[in-house]
């Protein structure tokens, strides 16, 4: 009897002591990161003699734990994205940084100068506004570049952190697997806590999935399917490197045992902080930088071309106002030695530049393929342009491509299969410069003056004068001469009757004859089949023998006709290209301000979406944490109650032992 009581009492004391230890351990680790509440359970002994062996386990629900990891990834993604987006949004929402304000100020100065074209001070204001606008382009592009460099730095830091967690999980897997799955060597619960916490921290970096192996290991995979931690402690490492652009960090996977084995990562579903950085760069940073470069190049090219169609204050043909840079392409790894690519904006083709990077491939010894790529680096279907060449090195332009080579002229050399990434817009806004600082070089006047002879009897009048090309010697026999003049000018246009006009030079030589089928005298030189770089129409009804004199606009300094066209570029909706697929013009074109406004709107829209997403994911994460902690978290109130209860159990168990001792002593006394 006393022997049974002693056995029962001893097991009860041991059991109560274990329960007290478990409860005390829970209380002690209430502030330990990743600690999961523990519980000890016992079974009754066979024949009811005391308490059996106790088992201490972690109170964790695997489904809740996985949900917590998913919500942690989602919140880390939205929080990181919002932090990055807020910085860019603050830059472009500040009126002091507005490119649109700078463009408006420049065109306002053109309007002021047009009111008095001979005033040098008004022209100087155009030069000053141009320099101020370029400074804004440079400043904003540099600030965006700083954000890009910051993204690269963060990628390096987060990759190192992620690799640390991956290695830690793999090492803990080894330690846990070494204990086996039997009851003889139970796995220390703190190892499981450490592993779960390392997995949770990894889920902040990338969205992950886990599987349980038979030996107790946790297999970790990215949401896109690539394995990070597999059995026997093997793992993969994340790496950030750029190909072909070394300044643009991309994520890849390397095998731990052989770093030469590289696997590409589908960043679309990467998740976590790393996924947020990649998404922010693709959805906000790159489009912003590309749009800045596109507007800078198209604006500079448009003003250059229009200024060249006018006459400056020195009576000479206008020249470029801005310098446009030469861009180098990035060769892909594996290209042949000596392969290279350079590109420049083709004069007058700036409106055809899309807001995309380009990929050039030498497909054969006589062909180059040019394709536009999206912000994820994928070729845009339908954007392919094939250009035939005679060999390499080769120079190709819009004429070689049937009229549209995305606004650039390329010089390319290499072997078949060589590829290049052409990214001019990433640096364009910082590289456009001033071609002149002389206010006299602004060509506000038209280089052509057409007058009707006073002796004309009809009411024919000159209309719709359009200058399209002032390049000297463009036309074979007639056209402009440098620094300012017409070949054998002035010219005379005479109405012959029968809807026909004769064009002669100053020496009486025939230039051409325009024969119209009706009294709709549009574009006389085109009708005559002569290209001289300009054209005009005649309205009204001329009389036979009426003449019109065409001459270089010498002394026409008070003329502002070309200045009005320069100012009109502000509202021209065909100056920038919206996308690479459709031909520029119509619904695929916009003005400078419209393009810039769409860029600023995109930043604000993306930032607002990120703000809403961050708030929603924060609420979901809070809910998941409460759900997880309701089972796995330590409650001081609950543990304090258990401590009192188990203390009382312990005291009661000691009374069993003392009672058994009293009974045993009584039995001994009875038999003496």
List the helices and strands and how they pair.
Elements: H1 2-28, E1 38-41, E2 55-58, H2 62-93, H3 99-115, H4 120-178, H5 189-205, E3 208-212, E4 218-222, E5 227-229, E6 236-241, E7 250-255, E8 262-264, H6 272-308, E9 322-323, E10 326-328, E11 330-331, E12 340-345, E13 357-364, E14 367-373, E15 385-388, E16 394-396, E17 408-413, E18 419-422, H7 425-431, E19 433-434, E20 448-452, E21 461-467, E22 480-481, E23 485-486, E24 491-497, E25 500-504, E26 510-515, H8 524-528, E27 534-539, E28 547-552, H9 561-568, E29 576-577, E30 589-590, H10 592-632, H11 636-670
Antiparallel strand pairs: 1-2, 3-4, 4-5, 6-7, 7-8, 9-19, 10-12, 11-18, 12-17, 13-14, 13-18, 14-15, 16-17, 20-28, 21-27, 22-23, 24-25, 24-28, 25-26, 29-30
Helix pairs in contact: 1-11, 2-4, 2-5, 2-6, 2-10, 3-4, 3-9, 4-5, 4-6, 4-7, 6-7, 6-10
Domain Flagellar hook-associated protein FlgK helical: 86-322
Domain Flagellar basal body rod protein N-terminal: 6-35
Protein name: Flagellar hook-associated protein 1
């Amino acid at each position: 009897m006393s022997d049974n009581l002693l056995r029962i009492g001893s097991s009860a004391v041991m059991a109560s002591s274990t329960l007290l230890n478990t409860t005390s351990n829970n209380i002690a680790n209430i502030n330990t990161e990743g600690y999961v509440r523990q519980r000890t359970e016992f079974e009754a002994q066979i024949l009811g003699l005391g308490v059996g062996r106790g088992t201490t386990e972690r109170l964790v629900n695997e489904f809740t734990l996985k949900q917590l990891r998913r919500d942690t990834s989602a919140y880390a993604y939205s929080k990181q994205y919002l932090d990055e987006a807020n910085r860019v949004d603050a830059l472009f929402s500040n009126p002091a940084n507005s490119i649109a304000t700078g463009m408006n100020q420049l065109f306002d100065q053109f309007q002021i100068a047009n009111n008095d074209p001979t005033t040098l001070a008004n022209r100087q204001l155009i030069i000053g506004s141009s320099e101020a606008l370029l400074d804004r382009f440079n400043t904003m592009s540099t600030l965006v570049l700083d954000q890009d460099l910051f993204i690269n730095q963060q990628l390096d830091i987060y990759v190192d952190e992620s690799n640390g967690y991956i290695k830690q999980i793999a090492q803990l897997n080894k330690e846990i697997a070494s204990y086996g799955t039997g009851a003889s060597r139970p796995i220390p619960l703190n190892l499981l806590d450490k592993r779960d916490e390392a997995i949770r921290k990894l889920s902040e970096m990338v969205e992950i999935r886990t599987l349980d192996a038979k030996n107790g290991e946790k297999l970790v995979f990215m949401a896109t399917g690539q394995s990070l931690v597999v059995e026997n402690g093997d793992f993969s490492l994340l790496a950030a490197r750029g190909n072909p652009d070394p300044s643009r960090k991309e994520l890849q996977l390397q095998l731990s045992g052989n770093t030469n084995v590289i696997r590409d990562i589908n960043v679309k579903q990467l998740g976590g902080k790393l996924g947020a950085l990649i998404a922010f760069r693709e959805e906000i940073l790159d489009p912003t930088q590309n749009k800045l470069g596109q507007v800078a190049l198209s604006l500079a090219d448009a003003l250059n071309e229009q200024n060249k169609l006018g006459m400056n204050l020195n009576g000479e043909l206008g020249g470029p106002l801005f310098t446009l840079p030469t861009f180098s392409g990035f060769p892909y790894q594996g290209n042949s030695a000596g392969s290279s690519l350079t590109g420049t904006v083709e004069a007058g083709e700036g409106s055809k530049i899309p807001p995309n990077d380009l990929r050039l491939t030498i497909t054969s010894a006589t062909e180059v393929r040019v394709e536009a790529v999206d912000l994820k680096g994928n070729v845009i279907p339908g954007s392919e342009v094939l250009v035939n060449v005679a060999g390499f090195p080769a120079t190709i332009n819009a004429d070689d491509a049937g009229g549209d080579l995305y606004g650039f002229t390329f010089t390319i050399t290499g072997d078949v299969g060589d590829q290049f990434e052409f990214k001019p817009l990433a640096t364009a806004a910082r590289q456009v410069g001033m071609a002149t600082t002389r206010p006299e070089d602004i060509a506000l006047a038209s280089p052509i003056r057409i007058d009707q002879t006073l002796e004309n009897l009809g009411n024919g009048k000159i209309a719709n004068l359009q200058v399209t090309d002032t390049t000297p010697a463009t036309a074979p026999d007639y056209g402009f001469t440098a620094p300012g003049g017409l070949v054998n000018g002035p010219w005379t246009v005479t109405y012959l009757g029968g809807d026909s006009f004769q064009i002669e030079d100053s020496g009486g030589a025939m230039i051409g004859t325009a024969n119209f089928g009706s009294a709709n005298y549009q574009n006389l030189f085109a009708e005559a089949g002569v290209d001289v770089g300009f054209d005009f129409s005649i309205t009204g009804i001329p009389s036979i023998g009426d003449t019109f004199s065409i001459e270089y606009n010498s002394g026409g300094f008070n003329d502002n006709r070309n200045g009005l066209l320069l100012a009109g570029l502000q509202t021209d909706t065909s100056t920038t290209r919206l996308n690479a697929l459709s031909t520029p013009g119509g619904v695929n074109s916009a003005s400078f301000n419209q393009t810039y406004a769409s860029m600023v709107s995109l930043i604000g829209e993306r930032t607002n979406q990120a703000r809403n997403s961050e708030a929603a994911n924060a609420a979901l994460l809070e809910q998941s944490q409460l759900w997880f902690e309701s089972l796995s978290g330590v409650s001081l109130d609950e543990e304090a109650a258990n401590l009192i209860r188990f203390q009382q159990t312990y005291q009661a168990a000691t009374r069993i032992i003392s009672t058994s001792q009293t009974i045993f002593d009584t039995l001994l006394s009875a038999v003496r």
